[in-house]
Design a protein that fits this description.
Blueprint lengths: L1 H9 L2 H6 L6 E2 L13 E7 L11 E7 L5 E6 L4 H16 L4 E4 L3 H4 L1 H10 L2 E4 L10 H16 L10 H10 L9 H6 L6 H6 L13 H32 L2 E2 L8 E5 L18 E10 L4 E6 L5 E6 L3 E3 L3 H5 L1 H11 L22
Parallel strand pairs: 1-7, 2-5, 5-6
Antiparallel strand pairs: 2-3, 3-4, 8-9, 8-12, 9-10, 10-11
GO molecular function: nucleic acid binding
Organism: Astatotilapia calliptera
Protein name: Integrase catalytic domain-containing protein
Length: about 350
């Protein structure tokens, strides 16, 4: 009797939709480990911000995952055409095409125009999963940008675009925590001089080895910087993963498993809808493909329509009466065990006994 009650409660669809999980967030860290400059790059928009006198309201940010070099532009609109043009002029024309470009699933980055430009230039486009932006390194740069802009503008909030070049110079010349070197050293093999450097640092002109050409010195400097960065980045990734994984747990799903996905509704006062009272999960959905250790492609149960790719942090198992009895039996009988109507029907009644979910 106790066993049947437990199975009944676990497979209650209303409970699964509304009750939060008390377990650790799923998904261990899978770090991206670039080996050279502009192998992996990220892109993102910041804004909207107060429109400036020049008409700018957004910031477009590109960042190199290896050197941490940033290319930042103040732009009028956050569109696919702007992103594509800036990719050509600020990235391709200056640094060549990155092997991989990582972005979120915002409309400017999933458009046919942007995809066509990347494909033409030989860059593979990779998208972060919904509501899991940690993959994109520009998120950290965006925070530093907004902090710096806040410090520069004071109460003149419509003048922020004037300070973008100075902020970029500061980011490019400051030693990065992950590499221990500045982005300028990583990319150019030298530090960018400032007027203060000319005053405080002695001149080394004429003191270099006359037998060694500048090009040889530059190649040696870049080689040493990159070797040092690879070593330090590897150690940094291991350290970050160790601390990150303490708050995470390992989860693995198989093709055909049923899951529910975190919902992110927005309140709508006009229709008296409150996000705080909305269900926490939607589903059930069926796993159609394992994309990686932490990402899965989902489809609807009834039509097989593709829902999207989701990170395990936003997923929870969906239990039926049969799955509570036996996971093996659930995989064999899931089609017969489910009423394929939508999970959430405000006027419906949830009955999860006998392996049936009716709404």
């Amino acid at each position: 009797m106790n066993s049947d009650v437990k199975k009944y409660v676990v497979s209650c669809c209303s409970c699964q939709a509304t009750k939060p999980s008390q377990r650790k967030t799923a998904g261990l860290m899978v770090p991206i480990q670039p080996q050279r400059p502009w192998e992996y790059a990220g892109v993102d928009y910041v804004g909207p911000l107060p429109r400036t006198q020049r008409g700018n309201a957004y910031i477009l940010v590109f960042v190199d995952y290896f050197s941490k070099w940033v290319e930042v532009s103040a732009v009028r609109e956050a569109t696919a055409q702007v992103a594509a043009n800036k990719f050509i002029t600020d990235i391709f024309a200056r640094h060549g095409s990155p092997s991989h470009l990582i972005s979120d699933r915002g409309m400017p980055f999933v458009s046919e125009l942007f995809e066509h430009v990347l494909l033409t230039l030989g860059t593979e486009h990779r998208l972060t999963t919904a509501y899991h932006p940690q993959t994109n390194a520009t998120e950290r740069v965006n925070r530093a940008l907004k902090t710096a802009i806040r410090a520069y503008v004071g109460d003149k909030h419509t003048s922020w675009d004037k300070y973008i070049p100075q902020i970029c110079f500061a980011l490019r010349t400051a030693p990065h925590e992950s590499t221990g070197l500045s982005p300028s050293m990583m990319l150019y093999g030298r530090e960018l001089d400032t007027p203060l450097d000319l005053v405080t640092q002695p001149s080394w002109e004429g003191l270099s080895d006359p037998e060694t050409s500048h090009s040889d010195n530059l190649r040696a400097s870049l080689r040493d910087a990159h070797e040092h960065a690879r070593l330090v980045l590897g150690e940094s990734h291991e350290r970050q993963k160790r601390y990150y994984d303490l708050r995470r747990r390992t989860v693995s799903y198989g093709v055909g498993d049923l899951v529910r996905v975190k919902s992110h509704p927005k309140s709508d006062a006009s229709s008296n809808f409150s996000a705080k009272l909305a269900p926490l999960y939607t589903g059930p959905y069926r796993i159609s493909k394992r994309m990686s250790d932490v990402n899965y492609s989902l489809t609807t149960v009834d039509t097989g329509e593709r829902v999207g790719v989701f990170h395990v942090a936003n997923m929870q198992p969906f239990h039926t009466w049969d799955s509570a009895l036996s996971s093996q039996r659930a995989k064999l009988n899931v089609t017969a065990a489910l009423d394929l109507s939508p999970l959430f029907n405000p006027g419906g009644i949830c009955n999860s006994h006998n392996g049936v979910v009716s709404l």
